[in-house]
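Exercise (ungraded).
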Amino acid sequence: MSAPDPTVGELSEGRILAGILARVGPSHAAVGPGDDAAVLAAPGGRVVATVDTLVHGPDFRLAWSSAFDLGWKAAAVNLADVAAMGARPTALLVALAMPDDTRMSFVEGIADGLRAACDALAPGCAVEGGDLTVSDTLTLAVTALGALDADVSPVLRSGARPGDVVAVAGALGAAGRGLGLLFSRFTDADGSPVAVDHSALSAAERVDLAAQLRPEPPVALGADAGRHGATAMMDVSDGLVLDATRLADASGVSVALTSASLGADPASALTGGEDHALLATFGAAESLPAGFRVIGEVRARGEASVLVDDRPFTGRGGWDPYRDWDAGTG
Amino acid sequence: MSAPDPTVGELSEGRILAGILARVGPSHAAVGPGDDAAVLAAPGGRVVATVDTLVHGPDFRLAWSSAFDLGWKAAAVNLADVAAMGARPTALLVALAMPDDTRMSFVEGIADGLRAACDALAPGCAVEGGDLTVSDTLTLAVTALGALDADVSPVLRSGARPGDVVAVAGALGAAGRGLGLLFSRFTDADGSPVAVDHSALSAAERVDLAAQLRPEPPVALGADAGRHGATAMMDVSDGLVLDATRLADASGVSVALTSASLGADPASALTGGEDHALLATFGAAESLPAGFRVIGEVRARGEASVLVDDRPFTGRGGWDPYRDWDAGTG
């Protein structure tokens, strides 16, 4: 009798792969999974490519995230990076490194999350390749590829011009508040993560938690922004102020934000990480595609990269994975 | 006074990235590192894409591999997968997850190895994007992208036909022997890796060790094989017999190998892993491009996927990362 839920160490690589491919398919590629490499359509002779990694410990805790959550988030954060170039995601490649004692049901949950995120956020995009490895540390490195429409230039960080409006699509601050909830309410006396009790959360808190664990970046709006002539765009992953600083510095301008446009909790909106909202600049407010809202304006370069309500922003600017992560936190 | 060789935990992500980019450049891409995603040329509207991961423990040991070796090998194994489709590598994306106490000089060594492998094995290919993460386990996940010549179809595993010749380019068996050397000669009484004493090695052993630590797959020959009408091709990464079995099964044929064509150590050639040679089939021996040598023939499907000297191969077939890795080995 075979075990009802074997570990990956008990299965061959071929069996594990077959279990994953049965869940992430069908392929939309010229050559999908199963050969040495995938072969994908790259319309217009251009391809957009990005990679982002989720590592157990700094990027997620298994007490808080389900396998489905992990697969979803690993897909979503990469789809957002493709969208931030003004492109449509076309394919994911997934490098999954996991401990020998990982249950096959967990692997299947990751596969389900990857597929569900593609279906919900970027229909037509699918997992077209990957790699399985043994590791002491559960790690998902996802590469996303994308296509630009024929008449659209990639939207860079460096194209903002004085006089442009600054706009955003997607939630700001919720994911950071969700992370705060996890650390403040779902850790034990030693600071170790414990399972989330959803019944202990208000409706608003559940929204924040979902933004952290299963983010829904406005992927389709990236290509919309490109078609509407966005002058600059980027994914807000490390906090609005830190990412706006990067955009301002790359463009040689200053970005002036209005806190009144940032919702009920402007402090979280300014500094909370992992929003995966799209920050973009446009030549005129009337050219904004549906789904974007104005949050400020681009000015000629001044002393500060980012102003909030006309003052240089002096708070904590956002999240840096090397300086801010404390391995001892749990 | 700043530390002469800081750890990544002491540096900002921006500083680490700047240190890497100074070594892997220059970019050949329309949009290289520094934005949300890279934008790469994909001639003919097609792109080849693959990912492969090196994890500390199962895939390398720091006592045996230098940072340069790691960067080189992570690039080389992915370049080989692109070549095995009949394509030319155009770009790498590198997801590097590393402990907080990793020295910056080590990161620079990885960057140097990545670049040197690209320059030596696939000129014109460069690191065009990536991601940095904190992890307890040093992990390099490299995605390689490639281009197919305008008139060339991707070469799949499934195209071998009875009557084709079976050919190989690159060394077989050396990398496996090199791994054997490491485990037999450079471990302590507990089986833990110790530094390699090169002066204790014969010239032939040094060649084997180099094949393991710094492989030189015949990357340029992949596109050559595509142009010469290879009917099937794959990267030999898990041992010739195991990979030939995959090719035979995908093509619905049997592969008959001749041990006399496999050099002085056919046993290693048949089962040693990590060769990263190119195994290909061609319609006729006279169509072989330079660099390939005949090692057998394709036959109508029989009972066995692979025959060696007309007998079904009964030895250990090759390497499976999930069944063969013993985490307790060191």
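Further reading is listed at the end of the chapter. For now, observe: Chain A touches chain B through 75 residues (CB under 8 Å). The radius of gyration of chain A is 20 Å.
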